[in-house]
Amino acid sequence: MSRTRHPSLAHWGAFTALVENQRVVGCEPFGPDPSPSPMLGSIAEMLHSPLRIQRPSVRKGWLDGNRDREGDEYVEVSWDHALDLVAGELARVRAQHGPAGIFGGSYGWSSAGRVHHARSLIRRFLFQGGGCVDQVGNYSWGAAQFLLPHVIGTTSPVSGDVTDWESVLAHTRHIVAFGGMPIKNSQVTSGGAGLHNLPGWLARAQAVGIRLTVISPTRADIPDGIAADWIPIRPNTDTALMLAMAHTLLAEGLHDTAFLARYCVGVDTWAGYLTGAADGQAKDAAWASGICGVPADTIVALARSIATQRSLLTAAWSLQRAQHGEQPYWALIGLAALAGQIGLPGGGFAFGHASLNSIGQPRRQVPGPEVPVPKNPAQLAIPVARISDMLLAPGAEYEFNGARHTYPDIKLIYWAGGNPFHHHQDQNRLRDAWRKPETVIVHESWWTPLARRADIVLPATTSLERCDVGGSARDPYVFAMHRAVPPQGEARNDFDIFAELARRAGFHDTYTAGRDEMGWCRHVYEGMRGGCAERGVVLPPFDEFWARGHAEIPPPDSQYVLFEAFRRDPDAHRLRTPSGKIELTSDVVAGFGYADCPGHPVWLAPSEWLGAEAAGQWPLHLLTNQPRHRLHSQLDPAALSRSAKIQGCEPIAMHPDDAAARGIQDGGVVRVFNARGACLAGVKLDASLMPGVVVMSTGAWSDPEGDLDRHGNPNTLTADIGTSRLAQGPSAQTALVQVEPYAGPVTPHRAWESPAVQAAS
Ligand SMILES: Nc1nc2c(c(=O)[nH]1)N[C@H]1C(S)=C(S)[C@@H](COP(=O)(O)OP(=O)(O)OC[C@H]3O[C@@H](n4cnc5c(=O)[nH]c(N)nc54)[C@H](O)[C@@H]3O)O[C@H]1N2
Ligand SMILES: Nc1nc2c(c(=O)[nH]1)N[C@H]1C(S)=C(S)[C@@H](COP(=O)(O)OP(=O)(O)OC[C@H]3O[C@@H](n4cnc5c(=O)[nH]c(N)nc54)[C@H](O)[C@@H]3O)O[C@H]1N2
Ligand SMILES: [Mo]
Question: Molybdopterin oxidoreductase domain location, by residue (predicted)?
Answer without folding.
Answer: 52-503
